[in-house]
Amino acid sequence: MPNRHRRPDPTEALQRLGVPREVAELCELPGVGPKIAADLYRRHRIATLEGLAEAVTRSPRTFQSYGHNTVDRWQRDLPVLLERRHSWPIALAAPQADAICAELANLPGVTAVSVTGSVRRLAAMNRCIELVVACADRSALDAWCQKAGAVTRMPADYPSAIATIRCTTGRGADELPVLIHVALPEAFAAALLQSTGDPTHVEVVTKLLAEAALTWSEVGLMHRETESIPIASEAELYARIGLPWLPPELREGESMLQSPSFLIQQTDIRGDLHMHSTWSDGSLTIAELAETAERMGYEYIAVTDHSQSLTIAHGLTPDDLRRQRGEIEQVRRRAKVRILHGSEVDILADGRLDFPDEVLADLDIVIASIHTVFTQSRDTMTRRILRALANPYVHILAHMHGRLIGKRSGYAVDTEQVLASAARHGVMIELNANPNRLDIWDEWIRKAVKLGIAIPIDTDAHEPGEMNNITYGVRMGIRGWLPKAQVPNTLSYAKLKQRLDARRMQASVKR
User: Fold this and answer.
1) Beta-carbon neighbour count of residue 39 at 10 Å?
2) Do 347 and 373 touch, CB atoms closer than 8 A?
3) Alpha helices in 311-403 (DSSP H)
4) Would you call 122 exposed, middle or buried from its count of C-beta atoms within 10 A (0-12, 13-18, 19+)?
5) Which residue from 3, 49, 11 is spatially nearest to 28, judged by alpha carbons?
6) Which alpha helices (DSSP H) does 361-489 contain, by range?
7) What's the mean pLDDT in 115-129?
8) Torsion of CA 153, 154, 156, 159, to 10 degrees
């Protein structure tokens, strides 16, 4: 996946400023460029993120010359970057785990492989990749582990091996431990459930098994410690303790109390309401977006390119929108998928929208979002978003926190106030399925659900293949206990269009 957030290497600029090259590490912090990094080094002798985090925590007033809001942002973002030193964001960990799985699945003697652990639960940050491998003959797997530099401290019947896999990421050479759980074929399902976790979930399952006189064993389960019971699937094991199969995303804390039957599933999704074309910063034409959607079996899409103030993303002017509408009309004539014409409209620093109401009134769908001026105070940012939500032409608030997992925490905002306002005004809150964002996430999804807010799951696709990120969004929806009934892009096109038009008509009356 192309990284649209990669920043230029600051090393040359720092060398011209006469400071050591290691100071470039400070430029990983959002909002810190070579000049600020050089100033931090000269005035405070700070050259590392750890050093800045310690100093800002110990004496935040020392850095007030950089601005109170800036220091607040450093205090939010530094823990994110420091956690990244020993953890991988899901956008990196999940594809790497899948790649290793595919490699192990081709080894002789291996009968089954699966991702497990925190990656399987879709944790935002992951300290390791865990896999379960089933094999009767371990010789090929042993050879692979030895080649990968695996650490094995167990005898011949060892249950696991640890290998450190080296990978290249946007930050250069990067490493993450890979823990491989080895199981007999008949114990694969039990090992998968047990290793998926989390500890609370496993503890509850273990207690329920004990009530049925069952215990974990290397062949699956044991009944009264005498009878071996191979388990063919996780669903079979759950059935033995009176539970339905629980998706991995529900295997944390109290989530196992949820009934998965009413939660969103990927097969429920009928369209994508947030994507970008070559008219702004996307790499697919409108026709190519429609063709991709048709291959995915979608009924509709919304083309929502950026608005005029976001010049870095080639935002569209009102005249551009009118010309784009003409192209959409042409594609509509030959496409099977229905196409909504919209815009991702920037929320300006004072809360005004980037287009006047007469432009918004001509759009099928209006998405409001923030892309600039992240350093405002919590109160100012909250008022900014609340003003945008009060505009009756806004249908959706997108990626409402602005976070990038493992890179920045997002801006300071009173989320409770924003959700209450969205519920009051009838504005939808997007679950952005880009695995670098996953914004909103489980905690806030649950609160939005309680308020009755509609939550579309959209990919914000810019590049080929990014529409497939819908999988991440649906899984995050499951983590957030999101019912299908509150996901508007599970509606038919006719019902969705009726809902969007009704809001626009109400807006026209109010104006």
Assistant:
1) 17
2) no
3) 318-334, 357-360, 378-389
4) buried
5) 49
6) 378-389, 415-425, 442-450, 470-479
7) 95
8) -120
Q: Evaluate if residue 1 carries a pLDDT over 60.
A: no
Alpha carbons within 13 A on the beta-carbon side of 11: 3
Q: What is the mean pLDDT of the chain?
A: 91
Query: What separation in angstroms does the CA of 478 have from each of 249, 441, 482?
Result: 6, 10, 6
**Nearest by Cα to 247 from 192, 298, 294:** 192
Measured distance CA(84)–CA(407) in Å, rounded: 8
Cα–Cα distance for residue pair 176/97, rounded to 1 Å: 11
pLDDT at 19 (0 to 100): 84
Chain segment 233-287, per-residue pLDDT in tens: 999 999 999 999 999 999 998 998 899 999 999 999 999 999 999 999 999 999 9
Asked whether the predicted pLDDT for residue 16 surpasses 90, the reply is: no
| Whole-Å CA distances, 35 to 32, 76, 335, 391 | 8, 21, 51, 39
- Residue 295 tokens, joined: 């291959």
Residue 209, CB-side half-sphere exposure with 13 Å CA sphere = 23
Q: Looking at residue 399, what DSSP letter applies?
A: S
Q: pLDDT value at position 151?
A: 57
User: Residues 90, 405: contact at Cβ < 8 Å?
Assistant: yes
Mean pLDDT of 16-34: 89
375 and 31 in contact (C-beta within 8 Å)?
Answer: yes
Classify 222 in phi/psi space as left (phi over 0), alpha (psi -120 to 50) or beta.
beta
233 SS3 class: coil
pLDDT tens for 198-236 read 999 999 999 999 999 999 888 889 898 888 888 999 999
Task: Give the C-alpha distances (Å, rounded to integers) separating 187 from 192, 194, 217.
Answer: 9, 11, 8
Average pLDDT over residues 75-90: 92
Inter-CA distances, 58 with 26, 63, 78, Å: 18, 11, 14
Angle separating helix axes 442-450 and 415-425, nearest 10 degrees? 40
CA distances to 335, 350, 371, 376 from 313, in Å: 27, 21, 10, 22
Q: How far is the C-alpha of 13 from the C-alpha of 15, rounded, in Å?
A: 5
CA distance between the termini of the chain: 43
- Amino acid letter for position 493: Y
CB atoms within 10 A of CB 94: 21
CB atoms within 10 A of CB 295: 10
Give 59: exposed, middle or buried? Use CB within 10 Å, 0-12, 13-18, 19+.
exposed
381, 412 contact by CB (below 8 A):
yes
Tokens at 149, concatenated: 């530099």
Radius of gyration, CA atoms only, the chain = 25
CA distance 180 to 161: 5
Cis status of the peptide bond prior to 198, with omega within 30 of 0: yes
The first and second tokens of residue 326, run together, are 């003409």
